[in-house]
Every structure is written in structure tokens, then in C-alpha cells.
Design goal:
The protein is of the alpha+beta class. It has 13 helices and 21 strands. The strands form 5 sheets. It has a 7-stranded mixed sheet with strand order 6-5-16-17-18-13-19. Strands 8-2-1-12-21-20 form a 6-stranded mixed sheet, sandwiched between helices. Helix 1 packs parallel to helix 11, helix 3 crosses helix 11 and helix 8 crosses helix 9. The longest helix has 33 residues. It is elongated. Bound molecules: flavin-adenine dinucleotide (FAD). Flavin-adenine dinucleotide binds next to helix 1, strand 3, strand 9 and helix 11. The site of flavin-adenine dinucleotide has 30 residues, from helix 1, strand 3, strand 9 and helix 11. Keywords: FAD, Flavoprotein, Membrane, Mitochondrion, Mitochondrion outer membrane, Monooxygenase, NADP, Oxidoreductase, Pyridine nucleotide biosynthesis, Transmembrane, Transmembrane helix.
Length: 418
């Protein structure tokens, strides 16, 4: 367990928020509430990802993601200095680069006025937000603390400290579930309200591969592909993509139907298949690295979840992937999660939510109307937008792996740009 401030330094008389999950959305939520004067306890089931032991175990994987204006605006609204630092650590991608099977390249800019998305190391983003969280006086962070149940009526959280191997119970006023796609907070909320919930696994899985840095004329590390593009190798029923990293490598992700991946189970089949469909990528990655990584790296599934409502009375809400996992083809999952925090805290401000304990003889049954109104408005206003973007993400899989190669698409692009 790592506690980042003492009880004595917390604001007296402030309400206690518990945030479950120290991923990017949980960290941003903790920061936003702390800035408004709440006492925040942040619980994370895993060890602190900034520890050398955590870094070592994730070193083989350099996972990055695309942050767009949506995510940046949320970071700026809550932690402006951090937003600027993240931009520094990111690489702008001004368009997508289509790699045809014979090896041709087609650059398709995202925006005529130069707007772009940004490739950023996922761990770096999370670590940066954790740094902000741990330097906030009002937040205590508990790693290796896995939440096992939430009693929304009594406002009690049960948490397993996995190092001490003991269970602790924590009272709360407000509980935020930012605990990802398989959220325990969402499941506990379903017990007390009539939540509509839908989940769907798509027929494709993904495998991550690393494209190493090359060398420039002076022997310094250099990108093997243009770093200011998101690279796509569309092959109709599957595709490979690559995003640049600051160390001049690219993280490549192959998305393909399960049956297609099942056939690739020996070094020979892997190499023959990749050489046929992605010859230029094989040259850049290197045959040995490709085979070793492909056969060693995990295959992961892709889930899409939708829920409504996102909240319960004045005492709980789910944000980020806990509320809406979406397939990654629109690059908006995390961007939307960060935006959730901005939208929610704006509504809390508009409804005049205060961090101090409301005067009430009976805390148990008391419903704080201002929080309840903010949460009600959050669910009502947010749901349609989140469903729309989740559906766009699903549609964009077809566009990225297939439509971008069709003549109709290319003609439309030309007409749009006239
Ligand atoms: P998570 O990052 O899942 O964090 C949840 C945290 O909660 C974890 O740290 C977990 O350990 C903790 N936790 C879980 N259960 C408990 C418990 N019971 N007790 C305590 N802690 C718990 N999004 C983009 O915006 N752009 C992209 O380019 C992009 N690319 C993607 C590519 C791929 C291949 C995938 C799969 C997703 C991509 N996404 C992208 C989506 C993005 O990764 C997610 O939307 C984002 O990570 C969600 O953040 P989160 O904080 O809500 O949840």
C-alpha cells in the first residue's frame, strides 16, 4: 500500500470520495475531485506502475495510443500544466499512410488546416497522471488494493489488501468506478438499480509487434517509417497499423479474425503470411523479431460494452471503460473516458456541488440533491454521445481495413479536398 498523504493533512469537514482504478480516467477523476476540495481515496488493484518491478514486467510491451483534441481538452480543463507536458512527450500524426500490398504509399491528411492526433506512450501518460495525483494533498493512493464489493445503500466499500492479505472496509460519500471494462463497481451498481447493459465481443483479435528503430547515416537511431503518420496496411478482412514512439520505434498492431490468427501457429506459416500481405512491414520489423514476437505475444480480444444509467442516486457513477468499452478503431476510448471526467465535473460545478459535508441529522438516508441532479444530467446528456461514438468506432473498422482502399473512397476524398 502506498499512502501519499497523512490523514492530518486532509481537509477537515470535506466529503470523502473513493475512486476505484488508477488508470488514466481514475487518476484524472481523483485530481478533479481533489481540486474541488474532496478528500479522495484512490484504490488500485495492481502494484504502482512507476515501481521498477512493474516497469520490468511491462518492458517487452510498448503500448501507445492516439490522443485527440477531445482528450487534450479534458486534461487542459483539469490539469493544464500536465496537458502541456503530455504534448511534449507525444508525436503528432497529421494523417494516415496507407500501405498497399505491392508496397505503394498513399498519405491521407486528417485535416486541411493541420489539426492532428498525437501518439503517446500509454504508460507515460498514466505515470504522469499518477505523479500529479500523488503530489495532491487531498488524495491518498492505495496500490495492491482490489475492491471486492460496494454497498451503495450503506456507502461502504470492501477492499482486499493483497499484500497484507486482509479485507478492509471504507465508508464513502461518493464512489467513482473507473475500473475498466470488467468493472466491479458497475456489477455492484446493477444490484441496486435497473441498469440496461450490453456487451459484445467482435470476431477479431489483436496482437502487438514492435518495429525497431533503424540507423541514420551517423549511426543514430532513426524512424524506419514517416513518424508523423498513423500507418495502415488495410487487407479487407484484417489490417496492420503502426504508431510512432519517441524512441524511434513503432508499435504495430495486427487486427485479424480469430480463425485467420489460429492458422498462424508455426514460424513458417507466420513468415509466409506476413511476407505475402505486408512485405514492407516484414523488412522493417525483421524476420526473426517478427516470428518471435508474433508467437510469444498475447492475443487479446476486443469488447464493446454499453450501459445506462451510469449513476446511482447521489452516491455512485461509472466512468471510462467501466461505463463504455469501445473497439479501438476510432482511437477514442480513452479520449472519451477523459472527456467523461470533464463533463461530469462541469455539471457538478453547474449544480453547485460542494465538497463539505452537508448538514444532515441522518447521513445514511440523506440524498444530496445537487450531486443527484449533476449525475442525472450526466447520464442523460452523455449516453447518446457515447453510443454514437462507440458505433462510429465499430463502423471505422470496415473503413480502416477495407473502404480506404476502394475507388469510391478515393474519389470522395479528392472531391472533399477540392
Ligand atoms: P483502464 O485503463 O482499464 O484502467 C482501469 C484500472 O482499474 C486498472 O488499472 C485496473 O487495474 C484497475 N482495477 C480494475 N478492477 C479493479 C478493482 N476491483 N479494484 C481496484 N482496481 C481495479 N483509446 C484512445 O483514446 N486512443 C487510442 O488510440 C486507443 N487505442 C487502443 C488500442 C487498443 C488495442 C485497445 C484495446 C484500446 C485502445 N484505446 C484507445 C482504449 C483505451 O485503452 C481505454 O479506453 C482506456 O485505457 C480506458 O481507461 P480507463 O482508465 O477507463 O480504464
Amino acid at each position: 500500500c502506498s499512502s501519499t498523504s497523512t490523514l492530518a493533512s486532509l481537509l477537515p469537514g470535506s466529503r470523502r470520495a473513493v475512486v476505484i482504478g488508477a488508470g488514466p480516467v481514475g487518476c484524472l477523476t481523483a485530481l478533479a475531485l481533489a481540486k474541488r476540495g474532496w478528500r479522495v481515496d484512490l484504490f488500485e488493484g495492481r502494484p504502482d506502475l512507476r515501481l521498477p518491478s512493474s516497469k520490468a514486467s511491462s518492458q517487452q510491451r510498448s503500448i501507445n495510443l492516439a490522443i485527440s483534441h477531445r482528450g487534450l481538452a479534458a486534461l487542459e480543463a483539469i490539469e493544464p500544466a500536465a496537458a502541456e507536458r503530455f504534448l511534449h512527450a507525444a508525436i503528432p500524426m497529421r494523417g494516415r499512410m496507407i500501405h498497399t500490398q505491392p508496397g505503394g504509399l498513399d498519405s491521407q491528411l486528417y485535416d486541411r488546416d493541420g489539426q492532428c492526433i498525437h501518439s503517446i506512450d500509454r504508460a507515460l501518460l498514466n505515470e504522469g497522471l499518477l505523479e500529479e495525483v500523488t503530489s495532491s494533498e487531498n488524495v491518498r493512493t492505495f496500490f495492491n488494493h482490489r475492491v471486492t464489493s460496494v454497498d451503495f445503500e450503506e456507502r461502504i466499500l470492501t477492499v482486499r489488501d493483497t499484500i497484507a492479505n486482509q479485507e478492509v472496509r471504507r465508508p464513502f460519500d461518493f464512489c467513482v468506478g473507473a475500473d475498466g471494462s470488467y468493472s466491479i463497481v458497475r456489477r455492484q451498481m446493477m444490484r441496486v438499480l435497473r441498469m440496461d447493459y450490453h456487451q459484445e465481443y467482435i470476431g477479431s483479435e489483436y496482437v502487438e509487434l514492435k518495429m525497431p528503430a533503424g540507423r541514420d547515416r551517423d549511426g543514430n537511431p532513426a524512424f524506419l517509417l514517416d513518424p508523423n503518420h498513423l500507418h495502415i496496411w488495410p487487407r479487407h478482412s484484417f489490417m496492420l497499423i503502426a504508431l510512432p514512439n519517441k524512441d524511434k520505434t513503432f508499435t504495430c498492431t495486427l487486427f485479424a479474425p480469430t480463425a485467420e490468427l489460429d492458422r498462424l501457429n508455426t514460424p513458417d506459416t507466420v513468415l509466409t503470411w506476413f511476407k505475402f500481405y505486408f512485405p514492407d512491414a516484414v523488412r522493417a520489423i525483421g524476420e526473426e523479431i517478427l516470428i518471435a514476437d508474433f508467437l510469444k505475444n498475447p492475443r487479446s480480444s476486443l469488447i464493446c460494452t454499453k450501459a445506462k444509467p451510469y449513476h446511482y442516486l447521489d452516491r455512485g457513477v461509472i466512468l471510462g471503460d467501466a461505463a463504455h468499452s469501445m473497439v479501438p478503431f476510432y482511437g477514442q476510448g480513452l479520449n472519451c473516458g477523459l472527456e467523461d471526467v470533464r463533463v461530469l465535473t462541469t455539471l457538478m460545478d453547474q449544480e453547485g456541488v460542494i465538497a463539505s459535508v452537508p448538514e444532515s441529522p441522518d447521513r445514511k438516508d440523506d440524498v444530496d440533491r445537487s450531486v443527484a441532479r449533476a449525475l442525472e444530467r450526466y447520464t442523460e446528456g452523455r449516453h447518446r454521445d457515447l453510443v454514437a461514438i462507440s458505433d462510429l468506432a465499430m463502423d471505422n473498422y470496415l473503413e480502416m481495413r477495407h473502404s480506404v482502399t476502394t475507388l469510391t473512397y478515393i474519389v470522395k476524398k479528392v472531391v472533399d479536398n477540392i
